[in-house]
Each structure stands twice: as C-alpha cells, then as structure tokens.
Amino acid sequence: MKVVVIGGVAGGASTAARIRRLDENAEVIMFERGPHVSFSNCSLPFHLSGIVPTTDKLIMMDPQQFKSKYNLEARVSQEVIAINKERQTVTVRFVETDEVYEESYDKLMLSPGAKPILPAVQGIEQRHVFTVRNVVDIERLQRYTQFSAVENIAIIGGGFIGVEVAENLHAANKKISIIQRAPQIMKPYDDDMAQIMHKEIMDANIDLYVNADVAKIATDHIVLGDGQIVKADAVVVAIGVEPETKLAQEANLEIGKTGGIKVDGNYVTSDPAIYAVGDAIEVYHQVLHKPVRLALAGPAQKQARVAADHMYGITNRNRGVIGSSSIRIFNLNCATTGINEKTAKEAGFQADSVYVIAPDKVGLMPSSNALHLKLIFEVPTGKILGAQAIGKGNADKRIDVIAMLITMGGTIEDLKDVELSYSPLFGTAKDVVNMAALVATNISYGRFKQVHVSDVRRLYEENALFVDVREEKEFANGHIKNALNIPLSQLRERMAEIPKDRAVYVHCRSAQRSYNAVMALLNNGYTQVKNVSGSFLGICLYE
Ligand code: FAD
User: Fold this and answer.
1) Predicted ipTM?
2) Quick one: signal sequence residues (predicted)?
C-alpha cells in the first residue's frame, strides 16, 4: 500500500509511524510545507522563557531519523496544493522553488491542522505582530523579544496559547498585558473558576483587560475599543484557530456544519480513499452528542492511530471526544474535562454543580494546599458531565480520574465510591473527587439544599439572611454586609438567634463548616436553610 500523508506533526507523524508498525512494506510519504516535522507544538511557548533552551530541542525527529528508524519519507518544505481524487494523486509544490509535481496514493491522510485566526484590525500586518504555531514562529518571536527595547508585550487572546505565551514572556522579564474580548479568559472553565485564574494573573503583575476589543495596533501601543491605550512593543495574536480545510474544500470533500472536515467513526472523509484527523476535522463529542471542533494533541494522535488501523482492517471503538486539557498558570495547576456548567445549560441539560474546596494532601504535610474542584452532573441521573480543578497541587490527577469516569459513562455514585490510592503525601483518605461526589449525591437525594456563590449578589439584593459560621477573627477580616456571625463552634448555644420562619443562607470560607452547620440546623427543625456552595473568596460583597 502507498500512503501519502499531508502534515508532518501531531496527526501526520503519528499516522506514518503507526502504518510502519502495521506494515513493513508500505510506502509512506509525509509532506510538510514547513521546514520541520514532528515537533512539540505544545512546548513552543516554553522556549520564550528558556525552559526549552534551544529550538532544536523542540524537534523530536528529523527526516533523516524518520528514514533510518522507520523507513518513512518525510518531505519538508513541500506543500500539497491540490488533491486529484479521480487520479488518486496530490499535486506538490516545492516551497523554495515553486516547482510542482504529482505523487500518487492508494490512501491519503489529511492532517493539516489549524491556523491562527487574525482579526481584521488596523495595524495587524506589522512586523512586530506575531502568531505562534510552529518552530519558525517561536524562533521569530523569541528573537524579536530578546531586544531590550522590547519591554512591553501585549497578548491578544486569553486562551491556552495566549496565557502560556504571556507566562513565558513574563518569565523572560517582559511587562505583559493580556487583552481578552470575553468577560473571562480560558473559555473551557466556568466564570467562577476563571476568577481564580484572573487573580493569579493579576497578582503576577500582568495587566488583564477583559471585555476589551482591540481597535488599532500602533507601533508601540494598542488602542482598545473604549479608547484605553495598552503599551505594546510587540503583539502576539492568539484568539483561536481555524481548521485548514482549503485543500479538502477544493477537492469537494464534505465539510461539516462546524467548519471542520466531516469524517466517519474511522476518520474516513466523504471519499473512501481519504482520511482526515486532528485540528482540521470535526469530531463527535461524547457528552454533547454532536460534532465539535477540538484542537488538542492527544485526540489528534489517537485519531491518527485509529485511521491507520482502519486502513489495515483493524477496528477500534470510537467513543468520541470529551475535551480534557490542563494548563499551569503561574503557581496554579488547572485542568478540565467534559463540558462546563455554562455549556451544559446552553445545551439544554438539566444540570447541577457542586464546588468543593478541600486539601489536596493531608493538612499536616508540608505541601498541602487547597484544591478547588467543580463537578457538573446531570439531574436526576447523576451522570457526570464535566469537571474543573484549580490548585497548587495535582489538579490534573483529579481531573483525569473524572475524565476516565466520563469516558465510561460514570455517575456521581461511581465517583463517590471510586477507591483511589492514598498516603498523606499524595492525597487525603477521602479524596477531593470523592468529596465532590458525596456533596453531589447529598444534593441529588435532597439531603440538603445549596445555592451557588454566583447567586449571592442577587440574594443579597433581595435582602436574604446570611449566616457566616466562620470564627470571629475571620469575620472581622471581611464579611458579607449585614451577615450574622455565629461560628460553628458556638452554633448549638446560639441557634435561637437564627429565625426559623425565613430562608437562611449559611456560608463559611470553603462551604465545609457551613455544610456541617446546615445539617445541624436541619436536624433541629429548620426547614429553610441552604448552604452557599463555593468559596467566600468568590463573594464580592464583603466589607
Ligand atoms: P499540526 O500538529 O498543526 O500539524 C499540521 C501540519 O500540517 C503543520 O505543520 C502544517 O504546516 C502542515 N500542513 C498544512 N497544510 C499542508 C499542506 N497543504 N501541505 C503540507 N503540509 C501542510 N494541545 C494539547 O493537547 N495540549 C497543549 O498543551 C497544547 N499546547 C499547544 C501550544 C501551542 C503553541 C500550539 C500551537 C498548539 C498546542 N496544542 C496543545 C494543540 C496541538 O498542538 C494540536 O491540537 C495538534 O498539534 C493538532 O495536530 P494536527 O496534526 O491536526 O496539526
């Protein structure tokens, strides 16, 4: 079999390597229009801070190594400019000379990825405006920002790439601004979780502009829509990516509603001899039950393996994607899986969420820290829809456990029972994921009721009664205006101070003491008590 692969990085290189493992005699030619194949896109931002000291470290394998180790032909600086379906050939252009030739295939794999979106803004074409997609891009950006005259750098876009570039340039002693059009950065996270990220970013002395539009890029500054000026000797645009579908479109391959190339469960396009994987395609979302676009390395590589297998008649079960990702933001590790609460509601799920803040290790251990975990589940089935975790410790481990359960169609009951490894150095006997599930099952079975931190402002304006069960000293440091302070340690003696005939909202710092207070009140005949789920730190009404 002769297989031609378009794109020589995540999906493309994985396809080629898998084919070789399946078939020693296959002829495999991989075309890459850039000068490098098989580089770590995900590590690109880390060159800006020196974590990856030189760009050659970003390249995992060059064409010579592909040849010697896998007997694969990687043709770099050669762009496929047309797919000739009827002849089963591709037209290839040498990038340096513009010469063209045709190469035939039995099977064709498209893994051309996605390109950065450039907004139609005045000044976008200037040489101090950058995007980050490949090794050449990061070399250019790094070289430019090394000039001492380049002090202020503005990042347009607060997604994964924007935030990672910001952090790494900050580590290189640059003064950074992030400009984000939406009210929050990091769209996969709900706004309550994103606030923690915002704080971390601002604490690092990065200027964060949200709800901000770019009106103009000038040589040393950006003008925002509302007239504010943001200093910028260099600008990095990272507002998202769009799938590279030009070749597919010109070859009349079917494009899905999301704008990605349409494929079946084996990644076969509308032409049976042509496969497509990675950022260029649309994929079935296991939770949303509809096609989505998902630009992540793990799915691209796994899809490549499935597609290569299919070329050789090997079947794989395709469950679809769930969208798991992680990022470090300064001192915080952040991870998410499945869908967030906002998406769940928009998609019409009857969904609820719990938000727990629990130690990631036994509190006596030196590196124990609070972990914020939000769990989203369907009502009344308890099926887990998604989760987000943020903390200094292993947020990714917690999210990976939940990702596993979502993949298996698991529920909050399953998560409550899952037995995880434990030592005080690694976790707590009842891990934070178990705790979140316990709270979720309590809520589901109506054992107590909750409101979310995001409801607090509305309730306050409706003159609701808040009981703050933190200690007096904590209360003195800041509290919700007009809240009644009855520390949990005094609750039983002072219960009579809490009226029985009106709704009462109990809160503390992390919703744990307040949960105990709520249960005590319920067991003493109070019927209108609710716990405020989430952190006091998320309530912005305190005095
Ligand atoms: P790519 O890996 O982009 O490869 C496509 C290649 O095809 C490109 O090199 C392109 O030049 C080539 N090509 C396109 N058209 C042609 C043509 N006509 N002829 C020849 N060659 C062509 N994902 C994560 O999961 N975690 C992360 O932490 C993460 N961090 C990232 C950080 C950065 C800076 C970037 C840019 C991406 C990151 N990603 C991350 C996303 C991840 O890299 C992509 O999802 C993944 O690489 C997609 O694989 P792909 O094969 O579809 O496309």
Assistant:
1) 0.99
2) none
